[in-house]
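REQUEST FORM: STRUCTURE PREDICTION
Request ID: SP-0412
Submitted by: Lab K.M.
Chain count: 1
Length (residues): 385
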Amino acid sequence: MAGHGRGEEGGAMRVRVRLTRGRYARAGTALGTLLVGVVPLALVLAPGAALAGAPGAGTPVCQVRDDRLREISGMVATDDGYVVVNDGADDESRRRIFFLDRRCAVARTVTYPSQPRDTEDLAVGPDGTIWVADVGDNDRTRETIALWRLAPGADQPVLHRMTYPDRPHDAEALLLDADGRPLIVTKGGSGTVFLYAPTTALRPAATTPLASVGQVVLPASTTSNPFSFLGRGVVTGAASAPDGRRVVLRSYADAFEYDVPGGDLVAALTSGVPRVTPLPDEPQGESITYSRDGRSLLTVSESAGQPQGTHPAILRYPATTGTAATPRSTGSTTAGPLAPTAARPAAVDVGVEGDRTWPLVAGAGTLLALVGLAGVLWWRHTARQ
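STATUS: Completed
RESULT:
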């Protein structure tokens, strides 16, 4: 009987061992499943993480060494050099229109007759008129936005106010159509941006209503940039080619070029298929323009928030031409025509300028939370031994 009892006790012990091992196995499986699921999530949320090798960077043209130009948000090329403006700055010395020579040195500046709110982009007309887009609105609280028109040889720009028909929008891009009509491109946030145009001719000392004239869905992208996936779904600048036959929108990650047949800019943007040029890892790319010969795209980034002594550099990228551009290997993005991506959800304005580290923090927090949950499951399994 004693031997039989020890056999039962040994059998029960073996059963408990098997059950304990089973609990460990199930807990290990649960932990592994959670980690397999969370690691890709953390990599997506981390800026630039898990992206293939960076595409070819732009070729430096010159450095802007004037300390007043650390937040360049708009640029156009001229026969003599470049014209640039800062993002809305508190410092009066930075609230100017800056004319640069071909070496990026400041040749002259033009002051505003009153204080602009948030200047974000530039456009140049066929006659050399400079248009400054005072259209930024990070908080989406402005009752009006504005364009400043600087005629050739003028000492000061003239203010023209406009108002949206629906609600305030944050915008950072300006285009001129074949007739010289301004076109405002909202910043967006989810890959869909909206186009607004004045309903009548702009007049000084008057507020002109805007009308919604279409929307643009940006192609999907994986190009590395400081804002990760958020940086690929916003429009931070725009430009027209000197001959008016092409137009480009840019995000923090890519340039999207559209052909403009017949001069119909709105139709080109709303129904055209863009060619993509990656602009990888620019610190905060908000400006784009065409070179005067139309053969290159020129970009410049803000240098605010960069290491001490960093100067903005104008970069050159080959512009694409035709409807079947030769693809350039980019590691994770291919330059060339893309199919329309109209399935993208409607735009939600998302601000990504202030804190570049929050996606990484969010990813790390999610990882820690799920690892903690896995630990709880492990403890519950093992506590029943």
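NOTES: Helices lie at 2-45, 228-231, 265-271, 358-382.
Reviewed by: T.R.
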